[in-house]
Amino acid sequence: MEVSVIGSSQAKLGASDLASREVGLCNLKNFRVVNDRVSFGQNNRWKKAGISFTLRAHRTEPVREENKRSGPGTSSKTVDGVRLFVGLPLDAVSYDCNSINHARAIAAGLKALKLLGVEGVELPIWWGIVEKETMGEYDWSGYLAIAEMVQKVGLNLHVSLCFHGSKKPNIPLPKWVSQIGESQPNIFFTDKSGQHYKECLSLAVDDLPVLDGKTPVQVYQAFCESFKSSFSPFMGSTITSISMGLGPDGELRYPSHHQLPSKTQGAGEFQCYDQNMLSFLKQHAEASGNPLWGLGGPHDAPTYDQSPYSTGFFNDGASWESSYGVFFLSWYSNQLIAHGDCLLSMASSTFGDSGVTIYGKIPLMHSWYGTRSHPSELTAGFYNTANNDGYEPVAQMFAKNSCKMILPGMDLSDAKQPKENHSSPELLLSQIMTACRKHEVKVSGQNSSESGVPGGFEQIKKNLSRDEVLDLFTYQRMGASFFSPEHFPLFTEFVRSLKQPELHSDDLPTEEEEGAESTVLSHESSVSMQTA
């Protein structure tokens, strides 16, 4: 595939234009595909700025190879082994009315991605939208409509089941869950000062009947069963993989950083102070013969906005290295791993006969990685220090459940990190990859910054080319800024450089399917951007 950019990609847009991108796809309402051209030129703001943008596909000889097809619904075969997906907007389905947000823009965007040779898209499906009003009553209509759109274009679909809430965009937990939480706040994670994190349920209630007589795991399983039934026409064909939500932002971690001010260099706080977590800690301490260790979390740990070394716990030779520190950090981490094991096991058993791959996501807590105690990882639940490998048991748990692992931060380099917090995303990624390689766990990479970081594409390519455990990369995330003149040409160059999957001759659409859009991308396309 060949991509060329003609003209200036540095066209200047006004401040209001840039601001409008923050809300999603609202300034792409006239973005469309006509006769195999993806056109941005009729967008009013772009028109005022004198910008037109066209992506055009040309017919070429189809690639004829005898490689085995990878399964039903697969429209491409890989060249370098790393497949490329793009995330759809977080608010692709409206919270208020369960309909598709910016449907025309998303439809055109899907066609543009297909023309580029992208294999598929990732769709977040929110618990708080589908099961919003009443337990056991599901409305999948908006998400089914998107699955049909994706199927029609010929892309694959990775579904992310989100059992957490979001503040931006504003998608809370189901109303009935929040109502229970008002009278039973201990269903939520709690920090030392008593603040509750209300964007997901505490892992301590996984097996407690706190949701109108049912446990959260039972509710999650019923949700998954309903999803499986409702999307059965797409399972194993259009839908090729599913990621199971495991905690805050869908990740396997404690919400240790949710109160951090934007410019702080803190390491977060331990989240073990809801009544159920404290009860489990007390039981564990008594069983170990040290009942006083079960009275609470570390008394000398810092608060959110304090330097991790302003108090005693994380300093070299301090509490984290003591017998108590080993006891607490092991228990705290094991609770998290047991939670992940429970949910991934449930997802694997539920979807095991559906022809899909199951994923779980872990965070990249790279701040303070260059220190001995790794405080950001410890508060998030990963007992990873100079004395202990915290990712070996995590990789073992994924391998046990035959699940693949999603890792963010593929766009982050050590050179771009602030020196004062001893951050090292590259070394942390390398450590996690080593654990995955040892336990034969395949990895799906993601970028961490949706707005882009300097040198981000080069760093992604570097990570994708050097490790054989990576088999998929999902670029986050489609939106107005994704298709902007500053970004989209860079993305097309990135796609070209990955040696993306080439279309098999059997996958070319028929004239009846395409009509006016009869020519399709095989392995050569061009992108032109012109300023008026």
TrEMBL record:
Region span, Disordered: 502-532
Domain of life: Eukaryota
Record keywords: Carbohydrate metabolism, Glycosidase, Hydrolase, Polysaccharide degradation
Catalytic reaction list: Hydrolysis of (1->4)-alpha-D-glucosidic linkages in polysaccharides so as to remove successive maltose units from the non-reducing ends of the chains
Molecular function GO labels: beta-amylase activity
InterPro entries found in the cross-reference section: GH, Glyco_hydro_14
E.C. code: 3.2.1.2
Gene3D superfamilies attached to this UniProt entry: Glycosidases
Gene Ontology biological process terms, A to Z: polysaccharide catabolic process
Bias (Polar residues) ranges: 519-532
Coiled coil: none
Family: Belongs to the glycosyl hydrolase 14 family.
Protein name: Beta-amylase
